[in-house]
Amino acid sequence: MSLYLWFIFMIVISFCWAVWFIYRPIKDNKIDLNNSNAELGRRKQEELKQDLSNNIIDMPEFEQANIEITQTLAQELVILEETSIVKNKNIYFITIGFILLFLPLISIGVYQLMSPVDVIVSTPNEDQKTQLKSPEKAISEIKLHLLDNPEDYLAWASLASIYVELNNFDDALHSYEKSYQLNSTNPVILSEYASAIFFTNNQQFDQKSLDLLKQALKIDPNLTFALYQIGLYAVSNGDFDLAKISWEKALISMPNSSSDRQFIEELLLQLDELISEKQYKQSKQNEQNSFSVIVRVSIPENIKSERSEDYLMIYLKSANGRPAPIAIKKIKLGEFSGEVTLTNRDSIMSIEKLSKLVKTIAVARISESG
């Protein structure tokens, strides 16, 4: 039920109750007054009877006093009844007025408390935006500060970070170097310095940037930004295992509320795909390298001794394909033991491996030149 319906419902209930209260019969205290006055009259009459019995008054005086008491009490009873009714009516109407006035106010107040509050967030207008500090203005202020405080390494690092935002890497490196010379133990500045070198070198890590990252991680092994950069370096060199270790450690070091967690998680997913692809290629390569063909050739001993410096040439070709050889093996006749093993490494062309042949023919000949 909406707040408007609640408000209307409360108003209707309030007015129905007020109408019922107005038209309810008014009760007074007439019976109480009658009982009280009757009791008073009986007491007066008892006193008159005692006076009469004690011969204080005679019978005519008794009757006259009794009549006066009765009339007086009757008049007082009427006055008390009228006064009581008037007072009750006044109190009654004041109560009704109070109810009719405050019930709607209370209903409106409850409605205001229950209704949602619209929060107005002011956004800066164009004039206010122009008043925001620009990078150029920030650079000017930091430079003025450094004129009086040239040993402030944090100011030099702040200046360098602004230069990085403006893609002014030459000035950024100069500022980072100044900060590094003043304090070389701040791991955050070390990792930012390495990042600036990385972008200056067309996103390539050199020895100095690696040394800075190693120094930063030696101070703070859980520094997220340094671990992220080490992971990038490892990927660029094909060391996926080191990259995974670095990025997983960076992810653990991040708080759950960090906006960079999703970015690192996506990098790890991409890295897992690269690792799977590399492992698949490696397994295929191992499978191909494990393939071999053994060729046995029987050569008389006198020929082997006479032509020991000549070469034995073994050719393998497809039994159903082209006559051109697929693989070749060359060995000096004097070193030949009676058999030779050919693998995919002996294939003439990389696109046509020996392992692809279903049926092969081996040809052997002796050559002086090889």
Can you walk through the features of this model?
This protein folds into 3 domains: about 5-115, no CATH class; about 130-285, Tetratricopeptide repeat domain (Serine Threonine Protein Phosphatase 5, Tetratricopeptide repeat), CATH 1.25.40; about 290-365, no CATH class. It is built from 13 helices and 5 strands. The protein has helices spanning about 5-20, 30-55, 60-115, 125-130, 135-150, 155-165, 170-180, 185-200, 205-220, 225-235, 240-255, 260-290, 300-305, and strands at about 290-295, 310-320, 325-330, 340-345, 360-365. The chain is about 65% helix and about 10% strand. Strands 3-2-5 form a 3-stranded antiparallel sheet, with no helix packed on it. It has a two-stranded antiparallel ribbon with strand order 1-4. About 15% of the residues are buried. A hairpin with an 8-residue loop joins strand 2 and strand 3. Helix 2 (about 30-55) packs antiparallel against helix 3, helix 8 packs antiparallel against helix 9 and helix 9 runs antiparallel to helix 10 (about 225-235). The model is unreliable at about 25-30 and about 115-130 (pLDDT under 50). The protein is mainly α.
